[in-house]
Amino acid sequence: MPYIGKTPLTGAYQLCDAIVTSATATYNLLVGGSAVIPGAAQNCIVSLNGVIQAPVGAYTVSGSTITFASTLSATDVIDFILILGNVLDIGKPTDGSVTNASVSASAAIAYSKLNLGTSIVNADVSASAAIALSKLASTGTMTFASTIGVGGATPAASGAGITFPATQSASTDANTLDDYEEGTFSPIISTGFTGTPVYSSTDNFGRYTKIGNRVYVHASVKIDSGITAAATGLQYGGLPFTSLNAAQIPGGFYFIYNLSWASGGTASFYMSMNANDTKFYITGTNGIGVNGNNASLTLQGTAFEYSGFYIV
Q: I want to staple 220 with a disulfide (CB 3.0 to 4.6 A). Which of 68, 186, 198, 305 is the partner?
């Protein structure tokens, strides 16, 4: 509120100038020769003849004067008058005036006293805040509007989901999913022929999905030209990951169907350990042997489409 004259200092302690008593009850209140105006008699501590006086009952204050309940004499001594200023026992601080330093480090402020609106936003949390993981425990369902990064991975900039690091951070725990990846690869055919195969640009394509230690693939491959003769042993390679190097689990890869091969029999693939290609097997009729071992097997113009999975 506005004041005429000197503005009272909130919480200031002012010791009044010495007062010489005489045959009167009213005296001027001065500090450094200037008049001061206490907020009320209760704002003053008055000592008379070594005895602290009761405000209102023993004295009153009006403006810059103090009036005692009875007339004093020249033998009375006003030891001191201490003006406490405008002490705010109840009041609202000016907006923006309360800083972090004004709050005790040991203050236990109830959560209900924090009017946070509808939610705490990112700007409300200090960039240097170290929030313990235990504080993030939830008994309900946690929802996220964007991507979560695990294993040190940088979350994807679009969509919503879980981002795993480019290089798997493997976990030994049987119940922990530690990797996920999607992508494409280019199937290739190696060995078992002479010449260099030329693949169809529209029919040579593969996709894969890696979930944990399982790699699922689906691909098609077509040889347009370049092979001069079929020989022994065919391998389909170019797979995105190397299989597990364990004799007990050599891997498994299963042929689904072919598009243009008409030599009869049943075709399948088998994957060895520590490999990123599969061996082509044919069994059945028309004298076709194992692992494509037959000179009559025509590869020119052959198109395969296959699916399967293996362990890494």
A: 305
